[in-house]
Write a structure and sequence with these properties.
By secondary structure, the chain is α/β, with parallel strands linked by helices. It contains two helices and six strands, in the order βαβββαββ. A hairpin with a 2-residue loop joins β2 and β3. It starts with 6 loop residues before the first strand and ends in a 9-residue tail after the last strand.
Length: about 130
Protein backbone atom coordinates (compact mmCIF):
# COMPACT_ATOMS: atom_id res chain seq x y z
CA UNK A 1 0.00 0.00 0.00
CA UNK A 2 1.40 3.44 -0.84
CA UNK A 3 1.73 5.91 2.01
CA UNK A 4 -1.40 7.94 2.62
CA UNK A 5 -1.77 11.04 4.75
CA UNK A 6 -4.09 10.10 7.65
CA UNK A 7 -4.29 13.19 9.86
CA UNK A 8 -2.75 16.60 10.45
CA UNK A 9 -2.52 18.68 13.60
CA UNK A 10 -3.83 22.21 13.05
CA UNK A 11 -2.68 24.68 15.72
CA UNK A 12 -5.25 27.31 16.69
CA UNK A 13 -6.13 29.82 19.39
CA UNK A 14 -9.71 28.49 19.63
CA UNK A 15 -9.82 24.90 18.38
CA UNK A 16 -13.62 24.61 18.54
CA UNK A 17 -14.30 27.77 16.53
CA UNK A 18 -11.62 26.90 13.97
CA UNK A 19 -12.77 23.29 13.57
CA UNK A 20 -16.42 24.31 13.32
CA UNK A 21 -15.69 26.96 10.68
CA UNK A 22 -13.78 24.71 8.28
CA UNK A 23 -16.19 21.80 8.82
CA UNK A 24 -19.17 24.02 8.00
CA UNK A 25 -17.46 25.48 4.93
CA UNK A 26 -16.50 22.04 3.62
CA UNK A 27 -19.83 20.54 4.79
CA UNK A 28 -18.09 17.68 6.59
CA UNK A 29 -18.57 16.25 10.10
CA UNK A 30 -16.54 17.37 13.09
CA UNK A 31 -16.52 16.81 16.84
CA UNK A 32 -15.78 19.03 19.79
CA UNK A 33 -13.99 16.06 21.37
CA UNK A 34 -11.62 13.53 19.88
CA UNK A 35 -8.60 11.48 20.83
CA UNK A 36 -6.64 13.48 23.36
CA UNK A 37 -7.21 17.22 23.35
CA UNK A 38 -8.15 17.51 19.68
CA UNK A 39 -11.28 18.74 17.90
CA UNK A 40 -11.30 16.54 14.77
CA UNK A 41 -12.68 17.51 11.37
CA UNK A 42 -13.36 14.47 9.18
CA UNK A 43 -12.45 15.83 5.72
CA UNK A 44 -13.03 12.48 4.01
CA UNK A 45 -12.76 8.74 4.72
CA UNK A 46 -8.98 8.97 4.88
CA UNK A 47 -8.09 12.41 6.28
CA UNK A 48 -8.76 14.07 9.61
CA UNK A 49 -7.70 17.58 10.64
CA UNK A 50 -7.06 17.56 14.40
CA UNK A 51 -7.45 21.11 15.72
CA UNK A 52 -5.45 21.82 18.87
CA UNK A 53 -5.16 24.96 21.00
CA UNK A 54 -1.72 26.55 21.05
CA UNK A 55 -0.37 29.65 22.78
CA UNK A 56 0.75 32.61 20.70
CA UNK A 57 2.29 32.72 18.24
CA UNK A 58 0.34 30.21 16.17
CA UNK A 59 2.37 29.16 13.12
CA UNK A 60 0.66 29.87 9.81
CA UNK A 61 0.06 26.85 7.56
CA UNK A 62 -1.28 26.57 4.01
CA UNK A 63 -3.94 23.90 3.31
CA UNK A 64 -5.27 23.16 -0.19
CA UNK A 65 -8.39 21.11 -0.99
CA UNK A 66 -9.16 19.78 -4.46
CA UNK A 67 -12.92 19.56 -4.95
CA UNK A 68 -15.41 18.94 -7.74
CA UNK A 69 -17.01 21.83 -9.62
CA UNK A 70 -20.26 21.33 -7.70
CA UNK A 71 -18.46 21.26 -4.34
CA UNK A 72 -16.52 24.38 -5.34
CA UNK A 73 -19.77 26.24 -6.04
CA UNK A 74 -21.28 25.12 -2.72
CA UNK A 75 -18.20 26.02 -0.65
CA UNK A 76 -17.84 29.38 -2.39
CA UNK A 77 -21.51 30.10 -1.62
CA UNK A 78 -20.90 29.24 2.06
CA UNK A 79 -17.82 31.53 2.14
CA UNK A 80 -19.92 34.34 0.70
CA UNK A 81 -22.87 33.69 3.06
CA UNK A 82 -20.51 33.72 6.06
CA UNK A 83 -18.95 37.00 4.91
CA UNK A 84 -15.47 35.47 4.80
CA UNK A 85 -13.17 37.54 2.58
CA UNK A 86 -11.56 35.57 -0.26
CA UNK A 87 -9.18 36.26 -3.08
CA UNK A 88 -7.93 34.92 -6.39
CA UNK A 89 -4.20 34.92 -5.64
CA UNK A 90 -2.22 33.27 -2.90
CA UNK A 91 -0.63 36.46 -1.52
CA UNK A 92 -2.81 39.05 -3.21
CA UNK A 93 -5.38 41.46 -1.88
CA UNK A 94 -8.91 40.39 -1.03
CA UNK A 95 -10.67 40.79 -4.37
CA UNK A 96 -13.66 38.41 -4.07
CA UNK A 97 -12.56 36.88 -7.38
CA UNK A 98 -11.96 33.31 -8.58
CA UNK A 99 -8.69 32.45 -10.37
CA UNK A 100 -9.14 30.50 -13.61
CA UNK A 101 -5.56 30.72 -14.95
CA UNK A 102 -4.60 27.10 -14.21
CA UNK A 103 -7.30 25.19 -16.07
CA UNK A 104 -9.76 25.12 -13.18
CA UNK A 105 -11.00 27.44 -10.47
CA UNK A 106 -9.13 28.51 -7.32
CA UNK A 107 -9.92 30.71 -4.32
CA UNK A 108 -7.96 31.47 -1.15
CA UNK A 109 -9.05 32.70 2.27
CA UNK A 110 -7.51 33.03 5.71
CA UNK A 111 -8.81 31.50 8.89
CA UNK A 112 -8.79 33.73 12.00
CA UNK A 113 -5.56 32.07 13.24
CA UNK A 114 -3.88 33.12 9.99
CA UNK A 115 -3.91 29.72 8.29
CA UNK A 116 -4.33 30.05 4.57
CA UNK A 117 -6.94 27.82 2.93
CA UNK A 118 -7.10 27.11 -0.78
CA UNK A 119 -9.86 25.43 -2.77
CA UNK A 120 -9.24 24.32 -6.34
CA UNK A 121 -10.96 22.20 -8.95
CA UNK A 122 -7.88 21.18 -10.97
CA UNK A 123 -4.52 20.46 -9.37
CA UNK A 124 -1.74 22.64 -10.74
CA UNK A 125 0.72 20.56 -8.67
CA UNK A 126 -0.21 17.33 -10.51
CA UNK A 127 -1.20 17.53 -14.12
CA UNK A 128 -3.68 14.90 -15.30
CA UNK A 129 -1.97 12.16 -17.28
Amino acid sequence: MPAQLDHLLVPSRDKLAAARQIAELLDVPWSSTGIGAFAPVYVNDGLTLDFDEWPEPVPQIHFAFRVSDGEFDAILARLQAAGIPYRSTVHGPVDAQVDTAHGGRIVYWNQPDGHQWEMLTVSYARRAS
